[in-house]
Amino acid sequence: MTNETTQPIDEAKVEAFAGQLVHDLGAAMNSVLVHIGDRLGLWRALAALGPSTPASLAEETSTHPRMVREWLSAQAASGYLTYDPDTGAFTLPPEHAFVLADEDSPAAMAGGFQVLAAVGAEIDRAVQAMRTGKGLGWADHQAGLFEGVERFFRPAYRTQLTTTWIPALRGIADRLAAGGRVADVGCGHGASSIIVAEAYPQATVAGFDAHAPSVETARKRAAEAGVDDRVTFEVANARELPGGGYDLVMFCDCLHDMGDPLGAARRAAQVLAPGGSVMLVEPFANDRLEDNLNPVGRVYYAGSTLVCTPCSLADDGPGLGAQAGEARLRAIVREAGFTTFHRATETPFNIVYEARPDAQPTGSGARP
């Protein structure tokens, strides 16, 4: 077998690659069904009911049994459900329920499929962004993206933000416990702001985001959580951050999206209280592209193509992308006036950096 340029083709490699595409096509198509199941409450119902037939699940969720049967079959073929041919029942294993049906689980991932559904509905805009390089602003996306992003990141914030990430910063946890002040930049729907306020009842938190509808949602979330007496939200651009004297300025999964990350970092340095820190939470990334060619990098590069990079380009930004890497982030932070920048902690999915405008003590573990 040869191709149009008469180069020899390895038929075994063609077959293997075609098999990979079949797998990926099935996963991509099923991602839509995962989100449909989330919207209809099918995952939660399966977790509560145990082994279920199409008829019993349809009755519980007010859906059509024939459509439910097809949906269940797709999930069994994907390995998300088990199927018993003797009883005709489908079962959601408890470990899978922990990921798909429990919104409070530290491993909850249903929000990621909501993100996929939102960006998938905007393919024409993505094509145009690819052609022109003019980007696609955050506010130009549909509301499902904003909610999906909140749901996707909230489990990590809930389980690690105040238990691991903030305690890894130099003296900041003690400051907040004693009544410190926090600025949460790019706060979105306010999940990170509210979690900090709940963990540090003496602290006050000010959340800032350039997207007015997200700020309105954040205010509602804070009221529902009963912390709106200590958490405020305001529409503001990161490079024009109001106020000052903050013990902690947080950028949670947002600096790489910004049109002016350098300006945002400079302003963060200006509003810090003496001895305060900037906490920069970024997707896990190595500096070299070849070191990011793995399943985590695959997700982040895809998300960056559809959301992060066009968001920055829409504001005439540098398009750092979700896989910016430590060296590029360090260069921006240093240029913004910070004298220390180091990796405070990390997970398989995030790296948490600490930046300070003052000198780091010897023996702190900081890297220049």
> Kindly state the mean pLDDT as a whole number?
95
**Distinct helical segment count:** 14
Structural class: alpha/beta
Count of domains: 2
Order of helices and strands: HHHHEEHHHHHEHEHEEHEHHEE
Major sheet summary line: 7 strands, mixed
- CA-based gyration radius: 23 Å
Strand content: 5-15%
**Secondary structure: number of strands:** 9
Strands of the largest sheet, in order across it? 5-4-3-6-7-9-8
Contiguous uncertain segments of 5+ residues:
360-368
Looking at CATH, which topology of the largest domain would you report?
Rossmann fold
Topology:
Elements (H helix, E strand, L loop, with lengths): L10 H30 L1 H8 L4 H8 L3 H14 L3 E3 L4 E3 L2 H7 L9 H11 L2 H10 L10 H23 L6 H6 L3 E5 L5 H9 L4 E6 L2 H14 L5 E5 L10 E7 L8 H11 E12 L11 H20 L11 H10 L4 E7 L3 E7 L12
Parallel strand pairs: 3-4, 3-6, 4-5, 6-7
Antiparallel strand pairs: 1-2, 7-9, 8-9
Helix pairs in contact: 1-4, 1-6, 3-4, 6-8, 8-10
Fold and architecture overview:
The chain is of the alpha/beta class and 368 residues long. It has two domains: 92 residues, Orthogonal Bundle (Arc Repressor Mutant, subunit A), CATH 1.10.10.10; 243 residues, Rossmann fold (3-Layer(aba) Sandwich). The protein is built from 14 helices and nine strands. It has a seven-stranded mixed β-sheet with strand order 5-4-3-6-7-9-8. Strands 1-2 form a two-stranded antiparallel ribbon. Strand 4, helix 11 and strand 5 form a beta-alpha-beta unit. Helix 1 crosses helix 4 and helix 8 packs parallel to helix 10. The radius of gyration is 23 Å and the shape is globular.
